[in-house]
Every structure is written in structure tokens, then in C-alpha cells.
Specification:
The protein has 257 residues and is an alpha/beta fold. It is built from nine helices and twelve strands. The strands form three sheets. Strands 6-9-10-3-11-12 form a six-stranded mixed beta sheet, sandwiched between helices. Strands 2-1-4-5 form a four-stranded antiparallel beta sheet, covered by helices on one side. It is globular and about 60 Å long. It starts with a strand and ends with a helix.
Length: 257
């Protein structure tokens, strides 16, 4: 099996005529955790939305190859079926749709995509119980409508539960730590770590080092003005925590003059 899971080359994308990504290059191999950091407005969330297939964003140049498949040619649904998962910064509520029905429909849609028989209700409930334990998701929450009335921490925990059920090859966590207290952060990060294998990979998008105390990255990338301007190991995140982003901004802006 090829270790390369995602290869992004010279990716340019924007929204409503405004270019936000200005030549992203990124390679993610199986078994790796990549952290993407950067100041507000640098393009971090745009990158996650473009990879997930949000139709509001237009790709004007570049490629994104996902385990040999042209990601940019796929619908958002097919990207999910192929093994791409996006954990939203602000998970939406879906009143009237139970978590059980929502997740069973998602799992069986993926199985149908690969010409597999659907899971029965009994089989799915058994799997759901196993996956729920990974993120310490209370049975009462799992039985309610999707995210309805959930706290911020419960919504994020629910996202990781969905990730556990769908077993993606590549998980993109877009500011999963946003609004979480320490206990919720520990549980969510613990779930992510338990789901890590040699066959999958994770991209963690965050502003802060504190999440990376729990989810250990192999690589840290700094995104600024739509480009990855610096890449390093975990020590780069610590340096950013200590020094902020101004020194990188000054370096990049000086080169662009």
C-alpha cells in the first residue's frame, strides 16, 4: 500500500471572486498527524472546506489527490464515502433527526457506495455502543436529535463519535478545541488518539498549542496569506505559543516586498 494519503499541489481557491488560498502544497502520509496553525484570515478553515467540497468555494488552480483519487472531481458525499471526514468548528443542530438514524443512514450510504449490504438495526446499535465508549458519549446524548440542545463540548464530542463510527482515512479537525474546557478537550483529544492507526491520518487546524499537548503532531505548518510559509516539528508550535505570529508575518511580508 502506498503510504501517501493526500497530496495537495499549488492549490488556489477562493469565494465570491476573492482568492484566499494562493498555492498550497501539502503531503500527508498514512499514520501521520499534521497541525496547521496561523493567524485569523490566513486560510485555515478555507483549506478544510475546499478539501471537503464546500460548493461555496471555487478552486481555480492546482490538484488534490486522495489515495490516488482526484479529490476535486468528487462530490462532497463521495469524498466522505472515500474516507474524508471534516469535524466542523461550529457543528450544526438538526432538530427532529435522531443520532441513531442519522449515523445509521451515513454508514449505510457509505456501504452502498462500496456495494456492501446495509447494517441491520441490531448490528448498527452494537457498533454504536462500542464507538460511544471511545469518546465517553452518554447514551442519552446518543439518543437525542443531532446536536440539539448540546453544549459546545458535547457537540465536539459528538463529532469525534461520528468520526469513530465512519472510520475515515483522513480526518480534518477544524478548530475542534474552540470553546472547550480542559475536561472536554481531554476527552475529545483522547478519542482522536484512540482512533489513530498506521492506516489513517489526521489534519488538526488550531490557533493554540494547548490542543497539541494532547494530540501530538508529527508536522506543524504555518499558514499565512493563503500559503504554507513554514513547516517544522512539534517545537514550532511551542515557538508560536511563546512568540506569537508577528515574527513570521514580518519575515514573509519582507520577502513579498
Amino acid at each position: 500500500m502506498n503510504d501517501q494519503l493526500l497530496k495537495v499541489e499549488n492549490l488556489h481557491a477562493g469565494i465570491e471572486g476573492k482568492e484566499i488560498l494562493k498555492g498550497i502544497n501539502l503531503t500527508v502520509n498514512r499514520g501521520e498527524v499534521h497541525a496547521i496553525m496561523g493567524p485569523n484570515g490566513s486560510g485555515k478553515s478555507t483549506l478544510s472546506e475546499v478539501l471537503a467540497g464546500n460548493p461555496a468555494f471555487n478552486v481555480t488552480e492546482g490538484k488534490a489527490i486522495f489515495h490516488g483519487v482526484d479529490l476535486l472531481e468528487l462530490s462532497p458525499e463521495d469524498r466522505s464515502h472515500e474516507g474524508l471526514f471534516l469535524s466542523f468548528q461550529y457543528p450544526v443542530e438538526i432538530p427532529g433527526v435522531s443520532m441513531v438514524n442519522f449515523m445509521r443512514a451515513a454508514v449505510n450510504a457509505k456501504r452502498k457506495y462500496f456495494n456492501e449490504d446495509p447494517l441491520s438495526a441490531t448490528e448498527f446499535l452494537k457498533m454504536m455502543r462500542q464507538k460511544r465508549a471511545i469518546v465517553e458519549l452518554d447514551n442519552k446524548l446518543a439518543s437525542r436529535s443531532v446536536n440539539e440542545g448540546f453544549s459546545g463540548g458535547e457537540k465536539k464530542r459528538n463529532e469525534i463519535f461520528q468520526m469513530a463510527v465512519l472510520e475515515p482515512q483522513l480526518s480534518i479537525l477544524d478548530e475542534t478545541d474552540s470553546g472547550l474546557d480542559i475536561d472536554a478537550l481531554r476527552i475529545v483529544a483522547g478519542g482522536v488518539n484512540k482512533l489513530k492507526t498506521e492506516r489513517n491520518a489526521t489534519i488538526v487546524i488550531t490557533h493554540y498549542q494547548r490542543l497539541l499537548d494532547y494530540i501530538k503532531p508529527d508536522f506543524v505548518h504555518v499558514l499565512y496569506k493563503g500559503r504554507i510559509v513554514r513547516t517544522g516539528g512539534p517545537e514550532l508550535a511551542l515557538e508560536l505559543e511563546e512568540r506569537g505570529y508577528d515574527w513570521i508575518k514580518e519575515e514573509v511580508d519582507a520577502k513579498l516586498k
